[in-house]
Amino acid sequence: MGMFNFLSDAGKKLFHHGDHAEAIKKEIEGSFAKLPVAGLVVAVDNDTVTLAGVANDTATREKAILIAGNVEGVANVNADELVSPEIIAATNVRDLPEPVFYTIAKGDTLWGISSDFYKDGAKYPMIVEANLEVIKDADKIYPGQAIRIPALLA
Amino acid sequence: MIKITMLSVVAAAVLLVGCGEDSKKAASEAAAKTVESTKEAANHAVDATKEAADKAVVAAKEATAKAVEATKEATKEAAKATKEAAVKAVDGAEKAVAGAVDTVVAVAAKEIYTKCAGCHGADGKTKALGKSPEIAGQTKDELVTKLKGYKAGTIDVAGMGNLMKGQVATMDDATIEAVSTYISTLK
């Protein structure tokens, strides 16, 4: 639930011409092997993107938010109406863990990020795995790109 | 004495001859009569045969006519019965098809509702995300109006208008009607 902030001057250049909302919808749906969000609705209001629909799972929901946020020109993603089965099942939405997003800074490496969050740089493939559709290519992360940091399984 | 005897013999012979002539005549007459009567009898027989044949032909004709008539009648009856049976069969088939269509629509609506059930509950009594009203107990007309409103983007209940718009976007009017009918039956 909620609003997520992104750097609007970094990211994939989709806002050249045509329908911005349609471009983001295509970008999200085209990033996954199977339709990630049932009945995905994308609305764009200046630098704020609103996403709505039923995501296949919470990880997919977070990835969809990141893909929209990583578009150049997008500063906010409103995901109040983007739900997942976990959110639907939760009797109290506030009990669900908030997603942990990290915005890549200049000079960052996946190893370094893994060391910071997991105290173990060698666990960086977990981050790659968790952002498969967001990063797309582990050698091509860029400053300003937002990624998800999954909780370590105990 | 001998003469007398001779005479009497002759006389007898004459008599005999006479008699023979008579009988010849009688015989030929009788033969003629026989021929005549045979002819007549033959004629009669021929006539009788002819008559019998004629009668037989007439009878046969009549029988044939009757048979044709009966066949015609039977054919008519059969045609009528077939027609009736066909009409009944068509009627039955139409009813069966209509029933099958209803069943298919109901099954399809139930199938579509599984998507709704994720948030609204299988019995329609879950307040989706803790925000929506219960959808069970609403009438079909209310539901159709709301779903069409969501599709058009003119309705926003509990701030979930966009979410619902996306869920209804692919439903045509018939699907909206069918699923609304299904939801209105939830108790």
Task: Give a concise summary.
Chain A contains 6 helices and 6 strands. Chain A is an alpha+beta fold and 154 residues long. Chain A has 2 domains: 3-95, no CATH class; 101-148, Membrane-bound Lytic Murein Transglycosylase D, Chain A (Roll), CATH 3.10.350.10.
Plain-language structure description:
The complex is a heterodimer of chains A (154) and B (187). Chain A contains six helices and six strands. Chain A is α+β, with helices and mostly antiparallel strands and 154 residues long. In chain A, the strands form two sheets. In chain A, strands 1-4-3-2 form a four-stranded mixed beta sheet. The radius of gyration of chain A is 15 Å and the shape is globular. The model of chain A has no long low-confidence stretch (mean pLDDT 91). Chain B has a single domain (53-187), classed as Cytochrome c-like domain (Cytochrome Bc1 Complex, Chain D, domain 2, Orthogonal Bundle). The mean pLDDT of chain B is 84. By secondary structure, chain B is mostly helical. The A-B interface holds A 37-41, 43, 50, 52-54, 80-83, 85, 87-88, 91-93 and B 115, 118-119, 128-130, 159-163, 165-170.
Overall number of strands of chain B: 0
**Approximately what portion of the residues of chain A adopt beta-strand conformation?**
15-25%
Give the class of chain A from helix and strand content and strand pairing. alpha+beta
Q: Shape of chain B from CA axes?
A: rod-shaped
Uncertain runs of chain A with pLDDT below 50, 5 residues or more? none
CATH class bucket of chain B: Mainly Alpha
Number of H/I helices of chain B: 4
Main beta-sheet annotation of chain B: none
Query: What is the CA-atom radius of gyration of chain B, in angstroms?
Result: 55 Å
